[in-house]
Amino acid sequence: MADERGQASIELVAGLPALLLAGLLGLQLLATGYALTLADGAAEAGALALASGRPARSAAREALPGWARGEVEVAVEGGKVTVTLPPPSLVGGLADRLAVTSSAAARPR
C-alpha cells in the first residue's frame, strides 16, 4: 500500500499537457468557426454593395471587426465577391493554414 502514495498526483501532472492540448484545439476550432461566420457576412455585404453600385471591397472590409480588417483578402470577379480570412490563433503559422473562404454573388447594376 505504501508504494501507491502519490500515484494520483503523478497521473494528474502527466495528464495535464494532454488536457491543455485538447482545450487549445477546441478553442482553435471555435475561432475558425467564428472566422467563417465573419467571412460569410463580409462576402454578403460585399455582394449587396456590388448589386447596389457601391464598391464591394470596402463594404466587405467594413463588415468585419477591426482585428480582421488588416488580415482579410477580398477578391471581386464579375458579380462574385470572395473573402478569405485567417482565424485568430496563438500559433502563428497555424492561422494561415486554417484560413477560411466564403463567396457571395450578385448581379451588378
Sequence-ordered SSE layout with sheet pairings:
Layout: H1 7-51, H2 56-62, H3 66-69, E1 73-77, E2 80-85, H4 92-97, E3 100-105
Antiparallel strand pairs: 1-2, 2-3
What does this molecule look like?
By secondary structure, this protein is an alpha+beta fold. The chain has one domain. The chain has helices at residues 7-51, 56-62, 66-69, 92-97, and strands at residues 73-77, 80-85, 100-105. The chain has a three-stranded antiparallel beta sheet with strand order 1-2-3. A hairpin with a 2-residue loop joins strand 1 and strand 2. The longest helix has 45 residues, at 7-51. It is rod-shaped.
Summarize the structure.
With 109 residues, this protein is of the alpha+beta class. The chain has helices at residues 7-51, 56-62, 66-69, 92-97, and strands at 73-77, 80-85, 100-105. The protein has one domain (2-105).
